[in-house]
Amino acid sequence: MCETIREKLRRGSRIIGEVFYGMSVFGWVRELRRSRGEVEKLFVLITFGDIVGLPILPPYYTLRLLPYTIPFLNRWKRSLLRERDLTDLIDLIE
């Protein structure tokens, strides 16, 4: 009985915390994640733009940065070549 009350209190406090998080900082966190993603896309575009035909940096520097950008390459190519529709543009207007 005591454990169920503790669990209910713990669950209720977690719900209240999530509500306050959503009311106060969720918009900021969402905007920061979006801007971080845009900066990462630009970084990979500058360093590995020659994959899509846009050479900006000489290959020497690109090869030096290769170990750091390997995790982002597949995701970057997918996001760059993905078709955009009207809902994507509306989301950017916010």
SSE diagram, text form:
Layout: H1 2-24, H2 26-48, H3 59-81, H4 86-93
Helix pairs in contact: 2-3
Brief sketch in words of this structure:
The protein is mainly α and 94 residues long.
Discrete helix count: 4
Poorly predicted regions: none
Q: Helix-strand pattern, N to C? A: HHHH
Q: What summary fits the major beta sheet?
A: none
- Euclidean distance between termini CA atoms: 48 Å
User: What is the oligomeric state here?
Assistant: single chain
Whole-number mean pLDDT: 81
Structural class: mainly alpha
> Rounded to an integer, what's the Rg over CA atoms?
21 Å
Number of β-strand runs: 0
| Portion in helices | over 70%
Query: Into how many domains do the coordinates divide?
Result: 1
Strand content: under 5%
Principal-axes geometry comes out as: elongated
Overview of the molecule:
- With 94 residues, the protein is mainly α.
- The chain has one domain (2-93).
- It is built from four helices and no strands.
- Helix 2 (26-48) packs across helix 3.
- The N and C termini lie far apart (48 Å).
